[in-house]
C-alpha cells in the first residue's frame, strides 16, 4: 500500500510538456512513393506531375510539399501542346504557389526550345519563371548563356543578365543604301 501511494504522488501531469515538445516537430504529414498528380481547371488538364517520392508537410504553419528524389511535370498550354520540366529536387510552397526546382533543371518546350539551369523558380499564379543562377537557352533563333532570367511562361517577355552566345536578329533592308 505504501508503494502505491508513493507511486501516485510521484506521477505528475506531463501533457503540457508533451504538447510543447510536439509543437516544434517538423515531421511530415505523409510520404508517398511513385506518385502521379493531375492538375485540372474547368475539366481541362493543366499539368501532370510524376515523382518517385512525395513528402507532404502541409501540417506545418508554412505548408509545403517536397520532392526529394526529383520530379517531372508536363504542362499543357491552351492549344494542348506539351511542355516538360525535369529536376532532381523540387519543393512546392502551398500558400505562395511558388515552386523551387533544383539540380539539373531542364525545361523543354513543344516548339523545341530548351532551358537548362541548376535552379528555377516557377510562380504558378502569375505563370512567371525566374532564376538568379546561370542558365542556357536554345531554340531556332537563340543559343546563349546568361546569368539571370525573368520571363513569362511563353518567353514573350524575356529579361536576362549578361548574355554570352548567338542571337539571330533580322533587320529591314536599309533604304538609303539602295538609292
Q: What portion of the residues fall into strands of 2 or more residues? A: over 45%
Give the CA-CA distance, first to last residue.
Answer: 119 Å
Uncertain stretches of 5 or more adjacent residues: none
Number of domains: 1
Structural class: mainly beta
Instruction: Give the CATH class.
Output: Mainly Beta
Approximate helicity band:
10-25%
Number of helices: 2
Rg for CA atoms:
25 Å
CATH superfamily: Lipopolysaccharide (LPS) transport protein A like domain
- The dominant shape is elongated
In total, the number of strands is 14
Q: Order of SSEs, N→C?
A: HHEEEEEEEEEEEEEE
Q: Under CATH, the topology is which?
A: lipopolysaccharide transport protein A fold
Strands of the largest sheet, in order across it?
Answer: 2-3-6-7-5-4
CATH architecture: Sandwich
Please outline the major beta sheet. Answer: 6 strands, antiparallel, barrel
The overall average pLDDT, rounded, is 81
Describe what this molecule looks like in 3D.
With 179 residues, the chain is mainly β. The protein has one domain (26-167): lipopolysaccharide transport protein A fold, CATH 2.60.450.10. It has 2 helices and 14 strands, in the order ααββββββββββββββ. The protein has helices at residues 2-10, 15-23, and strands spanning 30-41, 44-56, 64-67, 71-76, 82-87, 89-93, 98-108, 114-123, 128-131, 135-138, 142-146, 149-152, 158-160, 163-167. A hairpin with a 4-residue loop joins β8 and β9 (128-131).
Amino acid at each position: 500500500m505504501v508503494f502505491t501511494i508513493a507511486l501516485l504522488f510521484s506521477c505528475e501531469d506531463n501533457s503540457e510538456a508533451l504538447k510543447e515538445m510536439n509543437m516544434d516537430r517538423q515531421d511530415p504529414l505523409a510520404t508517398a512513393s511513385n506518385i502521379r498528380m493531375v492538375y485540372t481547371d474547368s475539366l481541362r488538364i493543366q499539368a501532370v506531375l510524376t515523382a518517385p517520392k512525395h513528402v507532404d508537410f502541409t501540417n506545418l504553419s508554412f505548408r509545403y510539399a517536397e520532392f526529394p528524389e526529383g520530379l517531372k511535370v508536363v504542362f499543357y498550354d491552351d492549344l494542348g501542346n506539351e511542355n516538360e520540366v525535369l529536376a532532381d529536387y523540387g519543393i512546392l510552397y502551398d500558400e505562395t504557389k511558388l515552386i523551387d526546382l533544383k539540380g539539373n533543371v531542364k525545361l523543354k518546350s513543344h516548339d523545341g526550345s530548351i532551358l537548362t539551369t541548376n535552379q528555377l523558380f516557377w510562380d504558378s499564379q502569375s505563370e512567371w519563371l525566374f532564376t538568379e543562377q546561370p542558365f542556357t537557352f536554345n531554340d531556332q533563333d537563340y543559343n546563349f548563356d546568361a546569368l539571370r532570367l525573368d520571363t513569362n511562361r511563353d518567353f514573350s517577355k524575356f529579361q536576362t543578365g549578361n548574355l554570352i552566345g548567338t542571337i539571330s536578329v533580322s533587320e529591314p533592308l536599309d533604304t538609303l543604301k539602295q538609292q
